[in-house]
Task: inverse folding
C-alpha cells in the first residue's frame, strides 16, 4: 500500500483525496436529509414542521382556496376567515384561520402511523421545545386522558396522549398569552373535572 | 502504470459513491414504506362451543326455504331478528382451583378487591369466549378492581401498580359481561396507539353512523362522559356480544340490544373487525 502511494503522482493523490472527501460530504448530506428526527426539529415559526401547510404571519396567498383542499370557509364578525381543510380526522378537520389578510392560526391532524415521517411524539416535542407553559387534561373529542400542551409564547400547542406518547394534533399561531390562546383556540378542552371513562 | 492506476482509482471511487447512494436510498425506503401491521395471532387451546352452533342452526331452521314447502313460513321469519353468534367461540374449560389465579395465568388480567366466585366465573367465560380475537392481547396487563356498580369506569392504562378499570358486580350475567368488554374497550382506544385502535377510521364511522347504542348517543346526559369515547367502547362490547341481549335495566340501555349489526353499522363493524379480528 505504501509502495503504491509513493509511486502515485501528487496530482492523482490530490484528486483521490478530493474525491473521497466529496463522497463523505455527499453521504452525510443525504443521510441528514432522510433522517426523520432531523426533519421534526424545526421551530414552529419557520415553515418547517413538515405538517405545517402555511407559515404563521404570512400573507394569505391568492390561490389559498385551490391549494389546500378547502372543504368550507366561514367569515366571522371579527374579520376572521376560518378555512376547514380535508383531513384524516373527519370530525375535527385541519384548519387555517386568517385575519387582515394574514395567517394567524392553523391546526393539523398528525398522522397516526408511527412509520409516517410526520408522526410526532410528545417526548420529542418536549425535548425540542422544553416544558410547556401549561398543560390541560381532558379532550372533548378524545376523552379524559388526553392532554393539551400549550407553548403560547412560542405560538405552539399540541394535543397528545401521554399514555402512548403520541401527538394527535399540532397547532401553530401568532404568539400570545395562555389565557388568550385558551379563549381563542381552546375549543377541544373538556372542562369537566378529570376522571375516568364511564 | 499511471494510466491504469487512474482507471482503478476512478472505478473504486464510483463504486463507493454508488454504494453510499444505494444504502441511503435503502434507509429511506425503510422509513417511508413499512410493511403493513399484522394482526396479533392468538395462541392457546380452545374448545369449540358445539351447543352454540346447534342453537344457531336450530333457530334458522324454520326460515330457510328448501324446495317448494307446502306450509307458509312462520310470521317470526319476517321479523327483523337479532344477529346471533357470528360463529362458534372458544368455551371456558372448568376450573378446579382458584379462578383469580387462572385468569391471571391464562390472560394476564388481575381481578382484585374481592369479586365473588360468580363474577369471576363470568369473567373467565367471557375472556375465553373472545380468546379467538385480538382482544386479550390488547388488554393484557390490566388490573380490574371491584367497585360499586355506579362507580364503574376506566381509570388508567395497564400498569403493574394501579387498577386500569373499576367494575361493579352487576347482578345480571349479560350486563356484567357487556360492561367488562366495554370498560376494557376504553383501554384499547386509550392505550394501544391510534393506528392499532384504528382511530381515524373510527372517527369517520362515528361521524357517518352516529353512536351504536342509546348510551353511545346520549353519554353526556347519562354519565357525563362524551359520545365519541363511549361509542368506541360500545362498538367493542357489542361486536364481542355473542348474541345474547344486553339487559334493558342497565342505566341508559333503554332497549334490548344484541350484537353489532354489520348491516346497520357497516363502518363501525369494519373498525371493530380490523382491531379485534373476526369474532
Result:
Amino acid at each position: 500500500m505504501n509502495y503504491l502511494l509513493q509511486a502515485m503522482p501528487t496530482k492523482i493523490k490530490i484528486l483521490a483525496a478530493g474525491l473521497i472527501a466529496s463522497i463523505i460530504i455527499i453521504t452525510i448530506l443525504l443521510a441528514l436529509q432522510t433522517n426523520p428526527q432531523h426533519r421534526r426539529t424545526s421551530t414552529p415559526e419557520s415553515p418547517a414542521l413538515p405538517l405545517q401547510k402555511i407559515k404563521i404571519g404570512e400573507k394569505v396567498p391568492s390561490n389559498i382556496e385551490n391549494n389546500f383542499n378547502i372543504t368550507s370557509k366561514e367569515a366571522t364578525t371579527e374579520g376572521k376567515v376560518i378555512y376547514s381543510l380535508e383531513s384524516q380526522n373527519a370530525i375535527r378537520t385541519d384548519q387555517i384561520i386568517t385575519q387582515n389578510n394574514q395567517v394567524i392560526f392553523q391546526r393539523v391532524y398528525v398522522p397516526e402511523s408511527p412509520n409516517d415521517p410526520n408522526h410526532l411524539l410528545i417526548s420529542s416535542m418536549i425535548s425540542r421545545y422544553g416544558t410547556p407553559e401549561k398543560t390541560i387534561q381532558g379532550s372533548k373529542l378524545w376523552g379524559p386522558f388526553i392532554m393539551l400542551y400549550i407553548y403560547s409564547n412560542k405560538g405552539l400547542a399540541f394535543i397528545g396522549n401521554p399514555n402512548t406518547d403520541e401527538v394527535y394534533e399540532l397547532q401553530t399561531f401568532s404568539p400570545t398569552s395562555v389565557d388568550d390562546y385558551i379563549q381563542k383556540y381552546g375549543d377541544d378542552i373538556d372542562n369537566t373535572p378529570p376522571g375516568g371513562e364511564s | 502504470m499511471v494510466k491504469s492506476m487512474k482507471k482503478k482509482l476512478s472505478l473504486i471511487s464510483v463504486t463507493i459513491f454508488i454504494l453510499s447512494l444505494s444504502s441511503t436510498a435503502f434507509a429511506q425506503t425503510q422509513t417511508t414504506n413499512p410493511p403493513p401491521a399484522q394482526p396479533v395471532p392468538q395462541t392457546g387451546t380452545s374448545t369449540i362451543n358445539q351447543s352454540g352452533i346447534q342453537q344457531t342452526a336450530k333457530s334458522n331452521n324454520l326460515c330457510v326455504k328448501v324446495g317448494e314447502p307446502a306450509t307458509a313460513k312462520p310470521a317470526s321469519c319476517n321479523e327483523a331478528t337479532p344477529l346471533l353468534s357470528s360463529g362458534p367461540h372458544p368455551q371456558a374449560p372448568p376450573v378446579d382451583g382458584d379462578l383469580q389465579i387462572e385468569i391471571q395465568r391464562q390472560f394476564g388480567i388481575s381481578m382484585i378487591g374481592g369479586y365473588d366466585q360468580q363474577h369471576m366465573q363470568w369473567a373467565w367465560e367471557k375472556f375465553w369466549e373472545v380468546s379467538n380475537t385480538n382482544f386479550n392481547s390488547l388488554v393484557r396487563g390490566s388490573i380490574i378492581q371491584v367497585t360499586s356498580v355506579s362507580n364503574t369506569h376506566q381509570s388508567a392504562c395497564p400498569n403493574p401498580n394501579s387498577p386500569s378499570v373499576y367494575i361493579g358486580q352487576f347482578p345480571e350475567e349479560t350486563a356484567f359481561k357487556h360492561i367488562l368488554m366495554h370498560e376494557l374497550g376504553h383501554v384499547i382506544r386509550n392505550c394501544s396507539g391510534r393506528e392499532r385502535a384504528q382511530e381515524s377510521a373510527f372517527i369517520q364511522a362515528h361521524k357517518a353512523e352516529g353512536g351504536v347504542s342509546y348510551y353511545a348517543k346520549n353519554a353526556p346526559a347519562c354519565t357525563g362522559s362524551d359520545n365519541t369515547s363511549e361509542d368506541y367502547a360500545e362498538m367493542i362490547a357489542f361486536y364481542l356480544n355473542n348474541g345474547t341481549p344486553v339487559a334493558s335495566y342497565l342505566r341508559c340501555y333503554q332497549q334490548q340490544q344484541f350484537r353489532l349489526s354489520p348491516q346497520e353499522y357497516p363502518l363501525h363493524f369494519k373498525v371493530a373487525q380490523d382491531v379485534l379480528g373476526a369474532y
User: Anything to note?
Assistant: The longest strand of chain B covers residues 143-147. Residues 19-71, 73-84 of chain B have pLDDT under 50 and may be disordered. Chain B touches chain A through 50 residues (CB under 8 Å). Chain B is about 50% helix and 5% strand.
